[in-house]
Design brief:
3-stranded mixed sheet, globular, 14 strands, alpha/beta, about 425 residues, 13 helices
Length: about 425
């Protein structure tokens, strides 16, 4: 029942831009009410790259739970999705202008929160929404899902996929209204309700026309439930204790969404969780400092990739904690662990030694080995900072801490608050 293919990046990217812009417009009210100076560190940091690309795994969970997913063939990437620099320049200028007006409304005009939010809903956000729709397009609201099936298993697959009633699928819709959501689009901005049909050579249609949210609930969630994923990090700084849960102030992409949370555990526990997941056939989302000691074309990540002795450069001279404290390293990119080379596959996760990791990247088939990288174990220890892993692959006590512990806030500029960095790759 596994669905092979790629989900539409443009679809999630579109809704992330919509939701994140609305979140940040409301965030500006809070910053102004708290007395933050427009020239202070917090506001300056948040205005450096408003409505930024990329994000934390928790932000993906927010989007998938609200809007679902759809196959890429139903909505392929727009030019501004594949190359977002120009669009982001326009968005950022517009957001900074609105931030300026919101600060003036709070500090000079003395408007109430209700008056400012009304201005956001009726004036500021519709302009942002229009811009996003022009540059990314408007996503289909329904599509027909058809999958290629084998003749021998045709009947069985049809029976399995019809377990959810058609009434439940038909009643599932994408909701963009309510107190926790951006206001509805105007008729001019929102395109007519469009649909897409996914066709293959030998096909079986599943459930008729469906929405992206119903598609996720029916076909994706039974295999990969985003709510079961736990975001764990390795933060060895003296100020960040293991067994604690952290968040980053003002880091999110949706109003009233749960806070972004990380459980800090040691690197050996992270390794064991990845191995358990891979042995169960489940890839692992990973956040790392991707460009460190990395060759994009060879597809290698290793301290020993380059011989830098003639430069008198000591690449191992700082610890992981020191790199974080002194701004030499932080999360810059997300990839996926898809395999591991073990010294003895028969050993337990506690005893086995990983020689190298197989990593799937998103930069295209022309890089690395058909889009894959080989990461050695030392590189993992030093530059892997975060994974999102199914809770069943973590220790029970760690899951309990993640679910129940007090969430400790980190500053907005903390290295674990980075969502994406514009890097030059070799």
């Amino acid at each position: 029942r596994r669905v092979h293919g790629e989900f539409s990046q443009n679809y999630l990217y579109y809704w992330d831009k919509v939701e994140r812009s609305y979140f940040e417009l409301n965030m500006y009210i809070d910053l102004a009410r708290r007395g933050e100076s427009a020239e202070g560190r917090v506001v300056s940091f948040k205005l450096e790259k408003p409505v930024e690309d990329g994000g934390q795994f928790s932000m993906l969970v927010n989007l998938v739970n609200k809007y679902g997913v759809m196959p890429k063939i139903c909505w392929k990437e727009a030019a501004s999705c594949e190359a977002s620099l120009r669009m982001n320049e326009i968005l950022r200028t517009q957001m900074r202008k609105f931030c300026c007006e919101i600060f003036k409304a709070v500090n000079e005009s003395k408007l109430s929160d209700e008056e400012i939010k009304n201005r956001i809903d009726t004036e500021y956000f519709p302009k942002i929404f229009h811009l996003i729709n022009v540059l990314l397009g408007t996503p289909p609201t329904t599509f027909t899902f058809e999958a290629e099936v084998g003749a021998a298993s045709h009947g069985a697959k049809k029976k399995e996929s019809s377990g959810r009633s058609s009434d439940a699928a038909d009643s599932t819709s994408v909701n963009t209204t309510g107190s926790s959501s951006p206001p509805p689009a105007t008729e001019q901005d929102a395109a007519p309700n469009t649909s897409c049909c996914l066709s293959k050579r030998v096909v079986q249609q599943f459930g008729g026309s469906t929405t992206p949210l119903a598609f996720y609930e029916t076909f994706v969630r039974p295999i990969y439930n985003v709510d079961d994923q736990v975001s764990v990090v390795h933060d060895p700084r003296p100020t960040s204790a293991y067994g604690k849960v952290y968040t980053v102030r003002y880091l999110n992409n949706m109003v009233e969404a749960p806070p972004v949370r990380y459980l800090n555990i040691n690197i050996d526990k992270i390794k064991m969780a990845v191995i358990r997941s891979l042995r169960a056939g489940m890839p692992i989302w990973c956040g790392s400092h991707f460009s460190k000691f990395h060759d994009r074309f060879l597809g290698l990540q290793s301290f020993d990739l380059l011989n830098l002795d003639f430069l008198r450069f000591e690449q191992r001279s700082m610890t992981k904690a020191e790199r974080l404290v002194y701004c030499d390293s932080f999360m810059t990119h997300a990839t996926v662990f898809v395999g591991a080379h073990l010294d003895d596959p028969s050993k337990s996760v506690e005893d086995v030694k990983v020689l190298r990791w197989r990593v799937e990247n998103s930069h295209g088939q022309e890089y690395g080995r058909a889009g894959h990288l080989s990461m050695d174990s030392e590189w993992f220890d030093n530059f892997v900072y975060q994974i999102a892993v199914d809770r069943k692959f973590l220790d029970v006590e760690d899951v309990e801490i993640f679910d129940t512990a007090e969430v400790l806030p980190l500053d907005p500029w903390d290295p674990f608050g980075t969502v994406a960095e514009e890097e030059q790759f070799n």
